[in-house]
Amino acid sequence: MPKVVVVGARGALVELLTARMSVVGSCCCHQVEPDPAALAALPPPAADDVWVHVAVAGVGLAGAPDVAAAHRVFEHAKGRGVRHLVLVSSAAVYGPSAHHAGHVGEEQRRLRRLDNPIARKWLELEVAAAQDLKDSAVGLTVLRSAAVIRPGGRDFFSRLLSRRIAFTLPGFDPSLQLLAPDDLARAIVKVVKRRALGTFHVAPRVVIPMSSALKAAGCWRLPLPRCVQWLPRKVLARVGWTAPVAQLDYLRHGWTISAEKLEQELEFVPRHTSHDAVLALASSGEPPAGVGEDYDPFGMDKQYVSRLGKTLFRFMHDIYWRAEWKGLENIPRSGRAVLAGVHRGHQPWDGVMTFYLLAREIGRYTRYLIHPTLVKFPFLAPYMIKCGGVHACLENAEWVLEHEGLVGIFPEGIRGAFTMYRDAYTLGNFGRDDYVKIALRHQAPIIPYVTVGSAEIFPILGRLDWPWWKRISEWPFFPITPTMGLVPLPSKWHTWFLEPISVEGYPPDAANDRAVVRAISQQVRQSMEAAISDMLGRRKSIFWGSIFNQQEPAALGEEPA
Q: Which of 235, 300, 435, 556 has its Cβ near the most Cβ atoms within 10 Å?
């Protein structure tokens, strides 16, 4: 095992990592301050020596790295002939945002715009490492670590979870990844032993909701609006008494990462869950190995769904909208499938009601792909996430299908939800037909379904094209409805789950054949259009009456006319 020089400002994390790496790696480790004198005093490195730069240490509560000190470390490493440098960066580089897809991989593109200054600093650090060591003999490994919490830590999350009162933001409850220091030390040792170069994420497999983390740590959560916290944090952050305002963004939106690359290439999996790390912090002891609770990776909460299912969802579905349904036998009781639906009414009620119906009747929790605007605002964000919503992207849809789940997709996208009422039951453009490609790649049947009645809860009669509103809300326009989006109208709902469209006759690579994809999409579209036409032809009133065959089984949820 080579000698490891841990370069970082003296602090709890650096000292702890140095000690743990010596134990788990049986290697010679010692810590060096990142100042010019200390670096210059180091003896010439041997051929197999490794420098580990822990950039997060020594920055107190700011949460951002010291890029100037990092430049010195990189230049000294290059000048002294170091062959391998491991940079401990942070998952904070991706930035918390409503556009963050969740559990992003190393190769996934970062957000186009990083509004958070802490995220920009981490990005600046990694860019500095790549540029300073370019065309040199120094091999670079970047470890983007989840938040490392430990007793006595002065970082944001260690302090947050160690206090009796935690000041958070109202209406948000993001999933967090909290890493035990021992797991970070083991990951560094694994990289050093394998001489692995490139970028790797280090994070526990199991996340923990922020509210659950605070509860496990024994913290009382006190949510205060950002505007209330802004001035006190602005003042107190200058003297190091609290975290800057920018850190609050990490308590608002998700910023989780996937560590599959580290697992697949280096066979490394953290021993401790996020819950384990919190328990260790609360007890100031060693974390238990994987005994924490098992949370959904994207934040779905079945207990939350069950509570709303007995109250709000049941009232809205069975009493207010008096929903009837047909074709529930077409939904598989197990295995993967793609549900392709029609979304109307500009609010997500139709998707939520379908989610509730399938969970109640057959015990299946559909993971709907949702637009970022649904997790952008307080209270709406945790509501959609806990009800199974996942950010609309290819990676998340594939994750659902790979785990044998139901993925819900509205092929028309957000513009389908904002269809003017005069065209409410005319299907719009299905876009790039990505839902068909996903189904083909994963050999998942496509189950079209349509709902008649949801367009009437907020019938869009007009529109206002306010540029400022489009920028803030990310809606295509501001819809004008009878109740201005405040109180949904009590229309009668009818949902029909149509015959599944199998793709088993095509190989997975048929997803690259535009003709095949288009043909399947047209088949889905035609079945939906035929069902809508049939249902509208039978509907006698917007507010009452059944439209389904009275001879069909009552178990299908049909009501007498």
A: 435
The span from the CA of 19 to the CA of 24, in Å, is 9
DSSP code, position 218: T
φ, ψ (nearest 5 deg) of residue 494: -135, 120
Q: pTM of the prediction?
A: 0.89
What is the phi/psi pair of residue 31, to 5°?
-100, 140
pLDDT greater than 60 at residue 60: no
DSSP 3-state assignment of 431? coil
CATH topology of domain 4-153+177-205+255-283: Rossmann fold (3.40.50)
According to the model, what pLDDT value does residue 185 have?
92
Give the 3-state secondary structure of 107-175. CCCCCCCCCCHHHHHHHHHHHHHHHHCCCCCCEEEEEEECEECCCCCCCHHHHHHHCCEEEECCCCCCE
Element (H, E) at 334: none
Amino acid at 332: P
Distance, in Å, from the CA atom of 259 to the CA atom of 201, rounded to the nearest integer, reads 5
Specify the pLDDT at position 343.
94
Concatenated DSSP letters for 521-545? HHHHHHHHHHHHHHHHHH---SSS-
Q: What's the average model confidence in pLDDT over 383-403?
A: 95
Question: Do 325-556 and 4-153+177-205+255-283 have the same topology in CATH?
Answer: no
Residues 6+ apart with CB under 8 A from 446: 337, 338, 340, 435, 436, 439, 500, 501, 503, 520, 524
Query: Token pair of 94, please?
Result: 């991706």
- For the chain, the structural domain boundaries read 4-153+177-205+255-283, 325-556
Amino acid at 490: P
When the pLDDT of each residue in the chain is averaged and rounded to a whole number, the result is 89
Fold observed for domain 325-556: Glycerol-3-phosphate (1)-acyltransferase (3.40.1130)
The per-residue pLDDT for range 25-44, each reduced to its tens digit, is 666 788 888 888 888 888 88
Residue count (the chain): 561
Is pLDDT above 80 for 317? yes
- In this prediction, residue 133 has a pLDDT band, given cuts at 50, 70 and 90, of very high
The stretch 272-297 carries a mean pLDDT of 80
The helix (H) or strand (E) run that includes residue 30 is strand 29-32
Q: For the ranges 90-99, 229-238, 547-556, which has the lowest average pLDDT?
A: 547-556
